[in-house]
Amino acid sequence: MIFPVTHSVLSTHALQKIIQQQYHISPVQQLNYFQAGLNDTYLIITSKQKYILRAYRTGWRSESDIHYEIDALNFLLQNNIPVSTAINRRDGGSITKINAPEGLRYLVLFHYIAGEPPTYKNNYKEEASAYGQIFGKMHRVLKKFSSSHTRFELNLNYLLNKPLQSIRPFLSCRPSDEDFLMSFAETLIHNYQQLTSKNLQKGFCHGDLNTANVHINKGKIGLFDFDCCGYGYYAADIAAFRWGARIEGNEKKIWPPFLTAYQNENPLNEADLDAVKIFVCMRHIWHIGLHIQLSDDRGRHWLNDSYFDQQIELLKNWQAGNY
């Protein structure tokens, strides 16, 4: 009997064999375990170019979810939005299935987006504007997107309710913080419900376009990592960028040029703009929940009092400042 595994790290040597057999690409010179995140990311270097291999964690996404993501990427590329699209196998399929110790895992090979992530330093206005412009164009173009595959929605349950369920057990010894969090969540839900009655714009969303997940190369920007994509509110999608800017201390500097450029491509109404600050707070709660969700295979040592002191203090400060 093999002892049960929560999450395995796949052998780069074995993956290289699979990739070389299954995909029509140049000889693989290097295949490196690049990043551990929501999924496992591998960087592949051939004699001609680079690729990204994503190994989805078991049970993280359904096959239909992944096909929907791939459909969206193909649609975007067809509409001149620079994105990292999936590469088909020799047999024409786009998803490779492997039996890992913990269960079935899906592999998808993606084109590599050349360039570097924005630094928001000397050229912060240009970088934030370029990001906002491509973000707005993406939303505008995707209003015509449809897929025969189903995928989960980026709704209130996804953004707030499920994360709260993950967080509450960790606050059982911090009753005042739990009371604050649940009370604040109720306020966010109330404000959310008031604004959603005003026809907030909805459509396909990237789901994780924080201040990263883009590369800039010679002034041109490319998007990647659509793993958290789905149907949702545009205000929530751009809130991810504002949240990232706030966490990094860049909000006042890069949010205005980002938003101006975004609205030049996809204008938002007053209710959408009011909703952004609500979704920023939901985003942070979602992010805490994500940390907890990943802790079974990433470790829990850092989910301590210091961590929760910092997270609760941030939310209290945002509440005091009306978000």
Key words describing this protein structure:
alpha+beta; 17% strand; Aminoglycoside 3'-phosphotransferase, Chain: A, domain 2; Phosphorylase Kinase, domain 1; three-stranded mixed β-sheet; globular; 323 residues; 47% helix; 2 domains
- As residue ranges, the low-confidence spans are none
Average predicted confidence as pLDDT: 96
Report strand %.
15-25%
CATH class of the largest domain: Alpha Beta
User: Main β-sheet, in a few words?
Assistant: 5 strands, antiparallel
CATH topology of the largest domain: Aminoglycoside 3'-phosphotransferase, Chain: A, domain 2
Number of helices: 10
- How does the helix and strand content classify structurally? alpha+beta
Give the number of DSSP strands: 10
If strands are numbered along the chain, what order do they take across the biggest sheet?
A: 1-2-3-5-4
Q: Could you state the oligomeric state of the chains shown?
A: single chain
Termini separation (Å)? 53 Å
> Which architecture of the largest domain per CATH?
Alpha-Beta Complex
Q: Helical residue percent?
A: 40-55%
Pfam families: APH (PF01636)
Protein name: Homoserine kinase
Enzyme class: transferase
Keywords: Kinase, Transferase
